[in-house]
Amino acid sequence: MDIRNTFHPVQRRISVIRWKALYGTAILAVFFGGSAKADPTCVPFRGDGKQSFDLDACRPAPVSAEEKKAVLRSLPPEGEVTGLAERERRKLSHLSAVLRLRKREGVYVIKVISVPQAWIGLHARAVVLISLPALQLLDSEELQALVAHEVGHEYLWKEYAAAQKDNNNARLSELELASDGMAVLALQRLGLRPDRLISGLEKASWFNREHLGWATNEKSYPSLKARRHLVKVMSNAE
């Protein structure tokens, strides 16, 4: 999961609270199986911080059609934004390239929701939630980059859930960087600039702090400096 998701009190409608609560627990949603193959070479994140696995060979099995239906039925009935402008719909259409690369086109459902934060999250390995402020704020490539980051979380699903359960902020921060790394690899394969991930993160971070203040879970995320360094190192290694 990416953009900081727990802010100091903000006035919300009940439907918005439900979406926010859903986002805040998305990574802890019931794990339906489909984890990376039980092959030691597919351990998604080694203790030394290096990615040592093949993203294609170690891709988790997707949720089943029945599982996806159950997830969709569980979503709040209110709060989804359907009346989008052409510019916004065009941005969403560009996400198909990212999902296709990771074999998730037709697996993930993309929903735009009305909450005050600029954030994006993967819920229950089946739904990509994009807040309206994030959709309006980010350009197409930045949106692709942040969604590529979210796709990376599926490879780390159980590790992330375990770290959240243990309140292990250091591990959560490591896993965020691992997802950043997977996003960079995806952007490179798509012929997009990896630094679009950083510019998207910076825009969302600035927007949220300007409008809502500092997040209460800042310690579970790496600094922008660390994220910039990772992108720079990986870009120079091409």
Report on the structure:
The chain is mainly alpha-helical and 238 residues long. The chain has one domain. The protein has 10 helices and 3 strands; from the N terminus they run H-H-H-H-E-E-E-H-H-H-H-H-H. The chain has a 3-stranded mixed sheet with strand order 1-3-2. A hairpin with a 3-residue loop joins strand 2 and strand 3. It is globular and about 40 Å long. The N terminus is likely disordered.
Spatial strand arrangement across the major sheet: 1-3-2
One letter per element, helices H and strands E, the order comes to HHHHEEEHHHHHH
Helix content: 40-55%
Give the total of domains.
Answer: 1
- The number of helical segments is 10
Low-confidence segments, ≥5 residues, pLDDT <50?
Answer: 1-40, 44-49
Beta-strand fraction estimate? 5-15%
* Biggest beta sheet summary: 3 strands, mixed
Q: Class by helix and strand content?
A: mainly alpha
Counting DSSP E segments of at least 2 residues, the number of strands comes to 3
The rounded Rg comes to 17 Å
Q: What number is the mean pLDDT?
A: 82
Instruction: Describe the global form.
Output: globular
Distance from N terminus to C terminus (CA atoms, Å) equals 26 Å
Q: Keyphrases for this structure?
A:
238 residues; mainly alpha
Helices and strands in order:
Layout: H1 14-24, H2 65-74, H3 86-93, H4 95-101, E1 109-113, E2 120-123, E3 127-131, H5 132-137, H6 140-155, H7 157-165, H8 169-189, H9 195-212, H10 224-236
Parallel strand pairs: 1-3
Antiparallel strand pairs: 2-3
Helix pairs in contact: 4-6, 6-8, 6-9, 7-8, 8-10, 9-10
